[in-house]
From TrEMBL:
Record-linked CDD domains: GDH
Record bears the keyword Oxidoreductase: yes
InterPro entries given in the database record: D-isomer_2-hydroxyacid_DH, D-isomer_2_OHA_DH_cat_dom, D-isomer_DH_CS1, D-isomer_DH_NAD-bd, NAD(P)-bd_dom_sf
GO cellular component: cytosol
Keyword terms of this UniProt record: NAD, Oxidoreductase
Similarity comment: family membership: Belongs to the D-isomer specific 2-hydroxyacid dehydrogenase family.
Tagged with keyword Repeat: no
Species whose genome carries this gene: Acidovorax soli
Domain D-isomer specific 2-hydroxyacid dehydrogenase NAD-binding: 110-289
Protein name: Gluconate 2-dehydrogenase
One Gene Ontology MF term: hydroxypyruvate reductase [NAD(P)H] activity
Record domain D-isomer specific 2-hydroxyacid dehydrogenase catalytic: where: 6-321
Length: 322
C-alpha cells in the first residue's frame, strides 16, 4: 500500500523530517521558501496531510484546492491560522501543540516583562551608542517587579505559568481576567484573584496578555483600555498580534500614557507598525516566546506524532476540532 503524502510547509528540524519520512512520502521545504497561498494550494493538491507552523492560512479556498487533505498538524499551540469551521466542514482534522511549550513561553513572558520594566533594551542601545559618560540618579530608572501588581489577561496554561512565576518567585500580587474563572484550587496554586477587565487595567502595574486570538479578542487592548492603565504601567503581549491595537499603543507610548511595552507579536507580523519602531519605550522581539531548542523540537515532534497517530488510525493526539 502506498504511503500517505505529507507536505511540510516550512523548514523544520531535519531529524523530524526524517522521522516523518519513515511513515510518509514527504515533500519538505528545507530552504524555507515562503510560499504564497496559491503555491501552498498547488503543493497540497495531491497531499493527504500537512505540517504547518502557524504562518500558513488554512481556509475554505485552500481546502477546495486540496481534495485529498485529511489533517493539518500545526506546530504551534495557537491555531488562529486555521479556519476551524471550514476545516470541519471539509472533514479536515486540525491539531496543535499544547503543553510542551507552556513553561518556556511563561519564562519568556517573564523575561520580556523584566526587560521592559527595567528598560534593558533602551539602556543597552544607549551604552552601545557610546552615550554613557557618568552615573546619574535617574538614569533608566524603571519600575519594580517584586511586590507589584501583576494583571494577567488570559489564564490558560501559559497565563497560569506567568502567575506562578510572579506570585511565588517575585512576591507579586496577581490578579487575572479570563472568560471563565479558575477553580478555587487552581486560584490558590497560582495565588491569583479574579477581577473584571477594567479593574485589572486600572490596578495592575504590569499587564500581561496571554489570551488566544479570536474575532472576540480582536483589539482587547485599544485606546480606551490603554487610557484606563496607570501612567507607570507596562504592557506585555506574548499572545497574538491583533489582540492589541498597535497604532493606538504607539500613540500611548509616545505620549507616555503608559510607561512601556514589551511585544513579541504584532498585527500583520512580520511587518511591525512603523511608529512602534521609533518609540524608545518598547521592547520588540520577533515572535520567539517558545523558541528554545528543546521546546521547538518537542513542538515539531508533537506535530509529527499527530500525523503519525492519525494515519495509524489511533486518532489525533491534540485535536482542535473533533
Ligand atoms: C504558538 O505556539 O502559538 C507560538 O506562538 C508559536 O507560533
Amino acid at each position: 500500500m502506498s504511503k500517505p503524502r505529507i507536505l511540510v510547509a516550512r523548514a523544520i528540524f531535519p531529524e523530524v523530517v526524517a522521522r516523518l519520512a519513515q511513515h510518509f512520502e514527504v515533500e519538505s521545504n528545507p530552504d524555507d521558501v515562503i510560499w504564497s497561498p496559491q503555491e501552498l494550494a498547488a503543493r497540497l493538491a495531491d497531499k493527504d496531510g500537512a505540517f504547518t507552523t502557524g504562518s500558513q492560512r488554512i481556509d475554505a479556498a485552500l481546502l477546495a484546492a486540496a481534495p485529498r487533505l485529511k489533517i493539518v498538524a500545526n506546530m504551534a499551540v495557537g491555531y488562529n491560522n486555521f479556519d476551524v469551521d471550514a476545516m470541519t466542514a471539509a472533514s479536515v482534522q486540525g491539531t496543535n501543540t499544547p503543553d510542551v511549550l507552556t513553561e518556556t513561553t511563561a519564562d519568556f513572558g517573564f523575561a520580556l516583562l523584566m526587560a521592559t520594566a527595567r528598560r534593558m533594551a533602551e539602556s543597552e542601545h544607549y551604552l552601545r551608542a557610546g552615550k554613557w559618560t557618568t552615573w546619574r540618579y535617574d538614569m533608566f530608572a524603571g519600575s519594580d517587579i517584586h511586590g507589584s501588581t501583576l494583571g494577567i489577561i488570559g489564564m490558560g496554561r501559559i497565563g497560569q505559568g506567568v502567575a506562578k512565576r510572579g506570585a511565588h518567585g517575585f512576591g507579586m500580587n496577581v490578579v487575572y481576567h479570563n472568560r471563565s474563572r479558575l477553580s478555587p484550587a487552581l486560584e490558590a496554586e497560582c495565588k491569583a484573584r479574579y477581577v473584571e477587565k477594567d479593574e485589572l487595567l486600572r490596578t495592575a502595574d504590569h499587564v500581561v496578555l496571554v489570551l488566544p486570538y479570536t474575532p472576540a479578542s480582536h483589539h482587547t487592548i485599544a485606546a480606551a483600555e490603554l487610557a484606563l492603565m496607570k501612567p507607570t504601567a507596562t504592557l506585555i503581549n506574548i499572545a497574538r498580534g491583533g489582540i492589541v491595537d498597535d497604532a493606538a499603543l504607539a500613540i500611548a507610548l509616545r505620549e507616555r500614557r503608559i510607561a512601556a511595552a514589551g511585544l513579541d507579536v504584532f498585527e500583520g507580523e512580520p511587518t511591525v507598525h512603523p511608529d512602534l519602531l521609533t518609540v524608545p519605550n518598547v521592547v520588540l522581539t520577533p515572535h520567539i516566546a517558545s523558541a528554545t531548542v528543546p521546546t521547538r523540537l518537542a513542538m515539531a515532534n508533537l506535530a509529527a506524532d499527530n500525523l503519525i497517530a492519525f494515519f495509524d488510525g489511533r486518532g489525533p493526539l491534540t485535536p482542535v476540532n473533533q
